[in-house]
Please model this.
Amino acid sequence: MSGSLNNIYNNVNFALHLHSNAISILQEQTSTGSRINRVSDDPTDAYRVLGLNSQKSSLANYMSTIADVMNMQETASTVLDDMSTTFAGTKVSLTQILSGTYGEGEGGANSRERVSSQINDILEQMVSSANTKYANHYLFGGSNTSSAPYVIERTDGQISSVTYQGGSQSREIEMAPGVKSAAFYSGSDIFAVDDRGTPVFFGGTGSAVGTGTSNIKGSAWLTVTNDGTNYKLSIDDGATEITVPLAGDISNIAVTDANGQVLYVDATNINSTGTEMVQVPGTYDVFSSLISIRDLLENDRDIPEAELKSLMDKLTESLDEVNNNLLQKQVSIGAKIGFLDNLKNNLENIKFDTEEEATVLQEADIAQIAIDLSRREALYQLSLQTAGRLMSVSLLDFI
Model:
């Protein structure tokens, strides 16, 4: 008999424990409003909720990255817009000089000197803008954003050359799963034109373009001298000279300088000495264009007035060349901002759907829980009553 009583006690105790545990879980769901408070509550849905929460966190990180990149693009667009506006103003000043808007009393050499000084200030500003930083990274350094992309050399206090030392490729950042986009641009692509044309000679020495592909960019000065026997050619003011042979084919002479720049010259019809400007369309950059114009305005080569205006007119065209490139890049960046904005909106929608699915899986149905809790409490009370009767024993039960 004692064995039977022990079995009854154990069974009753187990049943009461089950009811008590179920009531405890339902009460916890009621207080938290969550159906899944631990993995054991529903392993399958709990695993799914964990995956959805991880996806939501990942989407939030992508959206934050996109917001940062959009700010970068807007800063870059502002820089290019300022540059373009400045170029337009510079061209107006040069056009006024070329058209004779400034009178001789005010203009002439004095107005050229004033505009030259303005362009020198603009050049300083352009270099500073090209080295713009965002969040401690250089916007126009391409794949190398840790150091200034543009370095300068000065002669007598003025910028004489600007060299790009950033990365040749844009730096891409992942904006969404499987979606990458350029965040940091290569300055060589933004501020320089890469559409090399045939060099054009402006002068009366008889020099002409050779058949080789020159690598000089922008404009250069070809100096033709004669030592009494041979003509000599130089593109670095005589620092490096190439002698024109008296015999043989001289239609494609490579005139080089110490920096490895080459200009191929047809010397067949050279008949006099002098210095003439050589332009290579489609190769100007923001800085070389301004340097060439500034130096021509200063006229350290003592070029006659009529020829000076003609050369200035040609160099002014380089401003259009560079400015058009800036405008095209600005439009491209504007389109990129629009794309990123749309991508951010799409990710926001996906994130909202993810949150909603996780909420549906995890959120408790309070009405159903109230019914289940009431039922469990009734069963618990019934179990207590039944247990009380089963556990009521008398002396006769032992006889």
Remarks:
- Residues 103-107 have pLDDT under 50 and may be disordered.
- The first strand starts at residue 133 and ends at 134.
